[in-house]
Write a structure and sequence with these properties.
1 helix, two-stranded antiparallel ribbon, alpha+beta, globular, about 30% helix
Length: about 70
């Protein structure tokens, strides 16, 4: 679930989580993104916006577990 701060306008949103261990170290990471067109792209469809959100979520989660 998302928080009101993450999504004040209650738009569709993607949330990614990672809970597990890497080399014996425990991690718990979470990231949320509202699908939007990539920066600099004037027009895109829902699939491109969704893919952009997934990319941002994965980058955020990886940065949390480094």
């Amino acid at each position: 679930m998302y928080t009101p701060e993450e999504n004040p306008e209650r738009q569709n949103m993607l949330i990614g989580t990672f809970e597990g261990s890497i080399d014996g170290k425990q991690y718990s990471a979470r990231a949320a993104e509202i699908p939007t067109c990539p920066q600099g792209m004037d027009e895109c469809n829902g699939l491109v916006a969704r893919d952009n959100a997934i990319k941002k979520i994965l980058e955020n989660i990886v940065s949390q577990i480094r």
